[in-house]
Here is the input.
Amino acid sequence: MASPGGGRFGGRRAPAQRPPRPRREPAGGSELSARLLIAVPAVTYAIAIIAFSELWFALGILPLAIIALGELFDLYDEHEPVRLAGFVGVTALILAAYLGDGFHVLLTFVAFFPVLFAITLAQRRAGTLGMALTVFGVAWIGVALAHGVLLRELPHGAGIIVDILVGTFVGDSGAYIGGRWFGRRKLAPGVSPNKTVEGLLIGMFTALLATWLAGTYQDWLSGTDALLLGLAVALAAPLGDLFESFIKRDAGTKDSGRLFGAHGGALDRLDAVLFTAVVGYYVWLALL
Here is the structure.
């Protein structure tokens, strides 16, 4: 029997028949204050792992990857994802990024398939849907965060990661505030009912501006390059946000987890980063 968190896989239930479970939201200023309260330790942690070294960055990213993947698996637990294989996969991808380069990340992802199959046979539970869900999670979360590790190892990579994170999270706050103050037209009501076109545009502008302003403190980054990086962040971040919203909507839940209390789980906080880290890596690689 499918559990209440059932998803689109296997056609067991249509998402429209399973509205998201309600979440009690604080109103107005208290919502913004709670966001800022959560942001302080998160920013502190991010600065610490970025500043220390490439190794510490990889080790700091790893638990976030495992937690986020575990949250995804919890959303679709009835499909029996191959959890052990998934955790091994994201760990191997991040280590491959730290020890090697993009080729080694790709090679590790290809090698993940026989490992997945072997563990699936050993478990004697998961089937095709479980394996498909596991591959999806490893590709979405593991490959994306491996690109973050690859970016950290490029020249001035630490500074570029800071710029990307500033643009991503300031843009998210801009979209939230802009949507609450000026939002009139729904952006994608079937995916995320609270998002508006006005919030999207304000969020994109603030992401572009924040990335550019962050770049002005780095004498090795030209204003033009900072604008190009900011444009990439502004385009990728809302897509990453909507992508995760679609997955949660399909699973019939409001949040991916409770790591951050009323403000969701690790996957809720990293959704945009999973897109901007990849885009930022390739944009900076092209600009070098």
Notes: Confidence is low (pLDDT under 50) at residues 1-18, 20-28. The chain has one domain: 26-287. Residues 26-287 form one domain. Residues 223-251 form the longest helix (29 residues).
